[in-house]
Design goal:
This protein has about 100 residues and is an all-alpha fold. It has five helices and no strands.
Length: about 100
């Protein structure tokens, strides 16, 4: 994906998360015994979307793409977006294909 497309997807996901009631909050209990993903709800994903533009600014495109994949996996697992919607999110815009 081109950087512009990545930034667009990040913005769309942040808006979606906020519309679902998420607030950017870093979740710090991932290493505890008996961790359950629903405890982090969508706040940590929202936090990630706030950090990703800066990572792109510092040339960390590969890391951002990994984070996008993680967010998409959670969206799919939670039923927030279908697999086809997620695939379409990552596809180049029509003008990019020409």
């Amino acid at each position: 994906m081109k950087i512009e497309k990545i930034r667009q997807v990040i913005e769309e996901y942040e808006e979606l998360l906020i519309s679902l009631g998420a607030k950017p909050k870093q979740f710090e209990d991932y290493d505890k015994v008996g961790y359950h993903p629903e405890e982090a709800d969508l706040d940590h994903l929202c936090y990630m979307t706030t950090q990703m533009p800066e990572l792109l600014d510092h040339g960390k495109k590969e890391k951002v793409c990994c984070w996008l994949g993680f967010i998409q996996g959670v969206f799919f697992a939670m039923g927030v977006k279908s697999l086809n919607e997620l695939k379409n999110d990552s596809r180049p815009d029509e003008k990019e294909q020409q």
